[in-house]
């Protein structure tokens, strides 16, 4: 709580004391008063901008011209000296010393009159920005309409994310600016898999409801069908060279297969007749694979018995998910079982060199604590790197692992783990309403918090979707 | 100006830090908060859907343990009534009487999918467009040779699901108009699961059976019924009649992790994403 309070105070302080004074003393023609023009720091759509301000009667007014330049509005002054500002579908009119402004033809009172100082016009920034359809709060101006909601997100690069939301009978995927929240539609689809980003970050791939595979060039937004194969494809994973996509094939995810982008051909990598594989992970060289296998409990039921007798029994012994590793160079269709314990396992990650896997093991007791476990590809447990916190999520970002863990009463913590040494460090805290942590290869952080996407920027979590 | 209001809230969050601002409608629960164990049993047709949903749900709720098995629809509500499962996956609404099965008192049915069913034949069968009357004849044992329905001269092998299968209940009701199945004979066999049916049809020349459309492979042929192909489009446009809803049955209204899991399966995200990819039809598609 100490840290939270300190951060809140420092943010408020930053917001209310952002004025760097560049004094310009001027005499207004009307009042013959000396007014000091300052240069204040504002955030306009999350970007720092300097805007001239004056304090008149205890009220801070901001330069109309500086604000319209910052948000991209247009300014025109009529022959009767009426100032006309246009921004989107909003038109704002006012005169100097006026106590009201006309917004799209409707007069609206303002609490402090418009003031002219040294041939520049100053106005209350909140009234001005809100009349133009934006929002204003403590020197922060926002005129970008944010995307409603975020169900899934992935970093494209340090400045962009792909954000996905359900829409109508399908899903919409957007490219969202990480600094401003400005977004553009990338794909509308029905029954498509999640978009998976290529290793070089220039394109995404997905399979549609018919199993066909497509890629989209993120620069041109052009879509290209790379395969017409209609088998069910789960958990697409790019090869490191971007030449092919691996996936779990079939309604029971029985086969590991790959489709080659150049010719669309599908070939099998592992066909061991074991159903319900999940969480496919591929090494950088595309030859080593890790995955879970979900076994089904054995059900005993006699269909000749009277239904009313409920002669059915379920034996779940030995059906906990287990982790398997397969080296395709062996080409023997015989994956090795790495785990045999009875814990639940989630968030499987395979290291880029394929030498080890990490996952969150969830115990079977009432407390159900999550614990990071790392084992090598022969099944030997290596450093149990992080055992003192309840782990909620594991994410791989570049060569590092990141954990979302329990922390204080209202926060979760994000830790960075060095994959080689196992050393951990606290990166930052986040609301305990976080449902998902998203980390880029270069350690940019985003989080889904109460259905909104927030990005860690300049020491704060900033929402970039509604 | 809704977005403007939300922008203001967002700006406020930025200024006051991490304090408890009222949340918008959450699309996922916090990763840490939900725990429990869910045991699901029943329909083999619904098993791929259930396991896919379980895999996705556990990433959002890692402390929820989910076990899913299949031994035929009827074992779903039976397991719920017996208290050994939280969810009974079944291909009919087991809270109501259906031909062959009485209702399960006190259980609540939750629609989770639309399941199209198809009559399927081995790849060597040339008769691939059958009328309802021909299907009735074949599955009752009155029609014994493919040449009687326009195919080549070969004895028909009928593969049926065992009693208690939801696929069997739906196929008998909707494809055969309630006509009884044959129950024995040299060219008759019964299989326990959809997977067994798939294997039997793929590997048995001259065989006919039925399964949900998601299980149809390129090693078999899904036959037209009365000139209508078993496709998702034909189910939605009302031309193809052999389909049913898949249900999750619970003992009373569900609570806790079970409630949240059912909500996830019914969510637009899952219904319009993974569920479609697995060849099921979203419940909202049927008007």
From TrEMBL, chain A:
Protein name as annotated: Sugar lactone lactonase YvrE
Alphabetical UniProt keywords: Signal
Highest taxon of source: Bacteria
InterPro entries: 6-blade_b-propeller_TolB-like, Cu_amine_oxidase-like_N, Mao_N_sf
Organism per entry: Paenibacillus endophyticus
Residue intervals of the Copper amine oxidase-like N-terminal domain: 44-138
Signal peptide: 1-26
From TrEMBL, chain B:
GO BP terms, alphabetized: phosphate ion transport
InterPro entries: PBP_domain (IPR024370), Phosphate_ABC_transporter (IPR050811)
Gene3D superfamilies per UniProt: Periplasmic binding protein-like II
Alphabetically ordered keywords of this record: Lipoprotein, Palmitate, Phosphate transport, Signal, Transport
Subcellular location: Cell membrane
GO cellular component: plasma membrane
Oligomer and partners: The complex is composed of two ATP-binding proteins (PstB), two transmembrane proteins (PstC and PstA) and a solute-binding protein (PstS).
Name of the protein this chain belongs to: Phosphate transport system substrate-binding protein
